[in-house]
Amino acid sequence: MRYYNSKTINGKTFEEVRKSVEGALKDAGFGILTEIDLQKTMKVKLDKDYLPHTIFGACNPVYADKVLSIDPSISTMLPCNVTIREIENEKHEVSTINPLFAMEGVGNAELRVHAGEIQDKLQGMLDRL
Fold it and tell me: Taking the model in full, what pTM does it have?
């Protein structure tokens, strides 16, 4: 089991992919709570050049409530990261955390059930891109 799932998208600009991801996340019931521009951050902090690379902290409030009700400390594992990174001109990888992998070490079967449901939603989001 991999710790992430991904899809490569060709023939679109970074902004086009970004808009598609934002829409697909919304359709899957996720909101974007945080956004990190990794390209900008690395340039400012390390004076290092990166291709465009954005990290979204995505949250489905219904599932967040479910897992927090089981284990309030699971907040250390929230939100779900979804990334968009340019591989080369008009070729991008969209990746999501694999919640099943992330929950493996927690050892709570009830959380694992919800992690599987979230995994299905995130994979469905990738499939729609």
Answer: 0.94
User: Tokens for 94?
Assistant: 């969209």
pLDDT tens digits, 24-48: 999 999 999 999 999 999 999 999 9
Which residue's structure tokens are 């250390």?
76
Rounded Cα–Cα distance for residues 23 and 27 (Å) = 6
- Rg, Å, the chain Cα set: 15
Average pLDDT, the chain: 96
Q: Under a CB-based contact definition with an 8 Å cutoff, are residues 6 and 101 in contact?
A: no
pLDDT tens per residue across span 110-128: 999 999 999 999 999 999 9
Q: Helix/strand/coil (H, E, C) string of the chain?
A: CCCEEEEEEECCCHHHHHHHHHHHHHHCCCEEEEEEEHHHHHHHHHCCCCCCEEEEEEECHHHHHHHHHHCHHHHHHCCEEEEEEEEECCEEEEEEECHHHHHHCCCCHHHHHHHHHHHHHHHHHHHHC
